[in-house]
Specification:
Length: 248
């Protein structure tokens, strides 16, 4: 008989968010915090996250945007159930809806109206040969079975014209992300994210506006770690604590 380990509970945004996560498997970290910090949804606006997992980014967005309504879409039933528990744990179940659904099925399958914001931290790999096989509990978070195109296609359908798309991904996929979004979105803003100031960017935060026409903007980088022994730079620490936003 398989015994399922109980989830662990972590505090995010300096304790403003409580998050139950799997004991083994994918755990929310800096990527989720950065994604959430870039969403500035106003009162009455709607935000949808593709592949929300247990809600690491989703509930940080809910805390940062207290008058917005949110939808989380998650394929894995266990993770979706944890996200619903986290909605209750944080007292936001009245404005956060969790749907158990597959991004690959497309946004229209959800039977929901398009939102003002669509965000995602897509799985970083869509080629099983590109990395050593991840642990079973992490596979869904790391491997995009239907390719990055399924995720960008979902995001494009999930927002209204003039709506905002934000995603975080590997820096070496930037050209692919821009090419996939460009037919229906523009006004790109790209934030390179560097582990250290003297190292190449490992991540990029990409924002776009559906039907936007403004020129692409390459923003000053976000550097996560200093060489002086501190765990994070002051800017990264402020993002993790919910004391700073990212303006795109």
């Amino acid at each position: 008989m398989t015994v399922t380990e109980p989830p662990v509970e972590n505090a995010l945004l300096n304790g403003r968010v409580r998050l139950r996560q799997p004991t083994r498997g994918y755990r929310a970290g800096m990527d989720a915090a950065v994604l959430a910090a870039a969403v500035r949804a106003g009162p009455g606006q709607r935000v949808i996250e593709a592949g929300c997992g247990a809600g690491g980014a989703l509930f940080q967005i809910a805390a940062r945007c207290p008058h917005a309504r949110l939808i989380g879409v998650e394929r894995e039933a266990e993770a979706a159930d944890l996200a619903r528990q986290n909605a209750a744990l944080n007292g936001v179940e009245d404005r956060v809806e969790i749907l158990t659904a597959d991004v690959a099925a497309g946004f229209r399958a959800l039977d929901r109206a398009p939102c003002d914001w669509a965000v995602a931290n897509p799985p970083f790999f869509d080629d099983p040969g590109a990395l050593r096989a991840p642990a079973p509990g992490k596979r869904a978070a790391w491997m995009a079975d239907d390719g990055l195109g399924a995720w960008t296609g979902f995001l494009l359908k999930a927002v209204t014209e003039g709506g905002r798309i934000v995603l975080i991904h590997r820096a070496d996929r930037l050209a692919d992300i821009l090419a996939l979004l460009a037919p229906k979105a523009g006004s790109f803003a790209v934030l390179p994210i560097h582990p250290h100031a003297d190292e190449p960017a490992k991540r990029v935060l990409v924002a776009a506006i559906k039907t936007g026409k403004a020129p692409l903007r390459l923003l000053p980088p976000l550097v996560l770690h200093d060489r002086d022994g501190a765990r994070h730079t002051p800017q990264a620490e402020a993002i993790l604590r919910g004391e700073a936003d990212i303006t795109l």
